[in-house]
Amino acid sequence: MGQDHTKQQIEKGLHLYQSNQTEKALRVWMRVLEKSADPAGRFRVLGCLITAHAEMGRYKDMLKFAVVQIDTARELEDPDYLTESYLNLARSNEKLCEFQKTISYCKTCLNMQGTTVSLQLNGQVSLSMGNAFLGLSIFQKALECFEKALRYAHNNDDKMLECRVCCSLGNFYAQIKDYEKALFFPCKAAELVNDYGKGWSLKYRAMSQYHMAVAYRKLGRLADAMDCCEESMKIALQHGDRPLQALCLLCFADIHRSRKDVQTAFPRYDSSMSIMTEIGNRLGLIQVLLGVTKCWMIQKELDKALESIEKAQELAEGLGNKLGLLKLHCLCERIYRTKGQQQELRDHVVKFHECVEEMELYCGMCGESIGEKNNQLQALPCSHFFHLK
């Protein structure tokens, strides 16, 4: 298969993919991969396969193609190709919640400075690195990376990257409970989609709506949360976007739980859990199990709540997700206080404070811990936070 034919087939695949004929597109691209002798064409088709598998939530396949792409990049002996393939490797590991590996591959990208292409990729590298630090609950470093990614987006006038960073910042502030900012950033992302996103994939709109839904729920604006989540879910279903479907189901379940409608929440949590398990989103599974635990607590089924906590704790320890552990100790504290088991209660109080210390989640001004309740926060240029009040 010559260069021109390879190009035509890649374009044909893209056209099919954009018109939602994903399986047909994959077959076209796989044929190119088998038959093409052109390394640059193979590199590009591997990029298409990586993106498609990422959006379908087939993260292990995404990783497999990323590894093949690195070998192809080495054949081409071009630092730009190599940087791009290491970024894809980093992103595959980020999706599989292998956060230490993600950070290490991102650092490799940043050390391999090629030409202008690599410099344009730096924003995406910083974003992926920020998401990994957030997964490990290393908040200061996560914020540093997101701010860096935002600077790259502004300098290169890259609105798509800016939109993605705004969604990650929404997630960041939702985790440390500054719900005003958790809403502000995805609203900004939605604005970018409206102003510049005519030719973009609909996933950008869906992503911003989902993060808005999360913030609205945390602010107690449940009807708004439901509207945004329904819009996001509609797009996720149209596009066969399994990862986003799982997140929307989790958000629906959380909204029902906020309304104390546990019977409607449980089946949503179950559906979310089965997709999260299928795609390997262990960070998402921790969130699902936290929601399930709170439902059991509403129903005063404390032993069932403890069973969910045990599963979540195993996952959080495996991932190194300290915020997940902190939340679990907090729930255990409430359960053992209700049960009147003083020794267990004391153990979890101690572990809770150890988590706060480890994550440095306290205000440099007033000394109170950050992330216990909704509070407006201000970040300094060094990425330390303090309470705005």
Write the SSE topology.
Blueprint: H1 3-18, H2 22-35, H3 39-56, H4 59-76, H5 79-95, H6 99-111, H7 116-135, H8 139-155, H9 159-175, H10 179-196, H11 203-218, H12 222-238, H13 242-258, H14 262-279, H15 282-298, H16 302-319, H17 322-339, H18 342-359, E1 377-379, E2 385-387
Antiparallel strand pairs: 1-2
Explain what this protein looks like in three dimensions:
This protein has a two-stranded antiparallel sheet. The chain is an all-alpha fold and 389 residues long. It has 18 helices and two strands. Strand 1 (377-379) and strand 2 form a beta hairpin. Helix content is 79%, strand content 2%. The chain has helices at residues 3-18, 22-35, 39-56, 59-76, 79-95, 99-111, 116-135, 139-155, 159-175, 179-196, 203-218, 222-238, 242-258, 262-279, 282-298, 302-319, 322-339, 342-359; strands at residues 377-379, 385-387. Residues 1-80 form the Rapsyn myristoylation/linker region N-terminal domain. It comes from Ciconia maguari. One of its GO terms (biological process) is synaptic transmission, cholinergic. It is a peripheral membrane protein.
Key phrases:
single chain; about 400 residues; mainly alpha; 18 helices
Oligomerization status of the protein chains: single chain
Sheet with most strands: strand arrangement: 1-2
Integer average pLDDT: 90
> Helicity, in percent?
over 70%
- Poorly predicted parts: none
Strand percentage, roughly?
A: under 5%
Structural class, by secondary structure, is: mainly alpha
Q: What gross morphology would you assign?
A: globular
N-to-C order of helices and strands: HHHHHHHHHHHHHHHHHHEE
How does the major sheet shape up? Answer: 2 strands, antiparallel
In DSSP terms, counting alpha (H) and pi (I) runs of 4 or more, how many helices? 18
- Find the count of extended strands (DSSP E, 2+ residues): 2
Return Rg in Å: 22 Å
Distance between the termini: 65 Å
Keywords: Cell membrane, Cytoplasm, Cytoskeleton, Lipoprotein, Membrane, Metal-binding, Myristate, Phosphoprotein, Postsynaptic cell membrane, Repeat, Synapse, TPR repeat, Zinc, Zinc-finger
Organism: Ciconia maguari
Subcellular location: Cytoplasm, Cytoskeleton; Postsynaptic cell membrane
Domain Rapsyn myristoylation/linker region N-terminal: 1-80
